[in-house]
Design a protein that fits this description.
Bound molecules: 4'-deoxy-4'-aminopyridoxal-5'-phosphate
Strand order of the largest sheet: 2-8-7-6-5
Largest sheet: 5 strands, mixed
Oligomer: single chain
Number of strands: 13
Structural class: alpha/beta
Radius of gyration: 22 Å
Helix content: 25-40%
Distance between the termini: 64 Å
Strand content: 15-25%
Shape: globular
């Protein structure tokens, strides 16, 4: 050891890119009606939970899960009309986003994505040393800025790498028919996040050699607490992403719960149908309110703008036991809030409280 060198402070060992980043944070708040995280309002039926526990009881907990997760990947391949080799499973789609981005993004690599969108893309690209290239969208259009993304890509000397979230979090906007083909026609790679895909009218895309599609069981399938995400791509791309992925990231509880729910697709479909119906009811009621504008969207949440004081409205809802997401600091989202579609009782309470706040002159 060279004793001439001064000792560095612990913090000096942290990469500069990390020290310069903001942490992904969630406001700690307790509320009776939790409408802030786009979770499913419907828990898994008790008999399905019992069946999962039974299945796990019969497994050896001292043994690792199946290295290949063949059964679960097989069930997802069947559900998506693909093959086992096209499917990877991870600890939530967050893990697979990290793995995918780490596979594609090296130092200085430009990555093009709309803004505002899911903040994790920016963070993961930054962690990998890449350069986020955000393309502003107009939340009121319900669309994603595909033309602008393609125009930016055309100015670059390298084939573009796009990330697109459709339906987009937090606006709800979606890719229109033909948009994905146009992005692919640039010769670029597209990472498509379909976390809210089940709530939209767009069918899942077919496999393409330059497409990675991410999905999750956290939203429509009601398994957010068990952290199960999956991705689809060509065998070749999956093979490369696998090299980056941590082994055994999915535990045997989650694996069995995913299998049990995939066997009950009709349960998910029924819940999605109910959520979409409620979403449209909420949209209508919000549009009826003086000083409220909703952004068009096809997810299990609605982003809406209040005439003024979004933060105050957020706080007043919280006082009434209703937690929504304050997205007013996102680009192009001034005075906007985002509410997840809950049970019809929760939605009623939210609508009533909001109406009261807006008409009560409490701002
Ligand atoms: N993508 C988007 C767009 C999301 O909104 C979320 C969750 N908020 C995720 C991915 C991550 O989902 P999970 O890790 O629970 O699968």
């Amino acid at each position: 050891m060279n004793t001439e060198l001064p000792a560095a402070a612990g913090i000096d060992f942290i990469r500069e890119a990390i020290r310069g980043m903001k942490a992904y944070q969630l406001e700690p708040a307790e509320a009776g009606d939790k409408l802030d995280q786009n979770e499913s309002p419907f828990d898994i039926p008790a008999e399905v939970k019992r069946e999962v526990l039974e299945r796990v009881m019969n497994r050896s907990w001292n043994r690792y899960p199946d290295f290949e997760l063949r059964e679960l990947r097989g069930a997802l391949a069947k559900a998506s009309g693909t093959a086992l080799s096209n499917v990877l499973v991870g600890n939530g789609s967050n893990e697979l986003l990290f793995t995918t981005i780490a596979t594609f993004v090296s130092e200085g690599r430009e990555v093009i994505f709309p803004s505002p969108t899911f903040p994790l893309y920016d963070k993961l690209v930054t962690i990998c040393g890449g350069t986020p290239r955000e393309v502003m969208l107009d939340p009121a259009s319900g669309l994603l800025p595909v033309n602008e993304m393609i125009a930016i890509a055309a100015r670059s000397s390298e084939p573009p790498l796009f990330i697109v979230c459709s339906p987009n979090n937090p606006t709800g906007g979606v890719l229109r028919p033909g948009d994905l083909d146009r992005l692919l026609a640039t010769g670029g790679m597209v990472v498509l996040d379909r976390a809210y895909g089940e709530f939209s009218s767009a069918p899942p895309p077919s496999l393409h050699e330059r497409l990675v599609t991410l999905s999750t069981l956290s939203k429509a399938w009601g398994l957010a607490g068990l952290r199960i995400g999956w991705l689809l791509s060509t065998e070749e791309i999956c093979w490369e992403i696998r090299k980056v992925k941590l082994p055994y990231s999915l535990n045997i509880f989650s694996e069995q719960a995913a299998l049990a729910m995939l066997e009950r697709r009709e349960l998910m479909e029924r819940n999605v149908e109910a959520i979409i119906k409620e979403r449209e009811r909420m949209r209508y009621a919000l549009e009826e309110m003086e000083g409220v504008d909703t952004f068009p969207g096809e997810a299990n949440f609605i982003a809406f703008r209040v005439a003024r004081g979004a933060r105050v409205v957020f706080e007043l809802l919280l006082v009434r036991g209703i937690l929504v997401r304050d997205v007013s600091s996102y680009p192009a989202m001034n005075n906007a809030l985002r509410v997840s579609v809950g049970t019809s009782e929760e939605n009623d309470r939210f609508l009533e409280a909001l109406q009261g706040i807006l008409s009560g002159g409490e701002q």
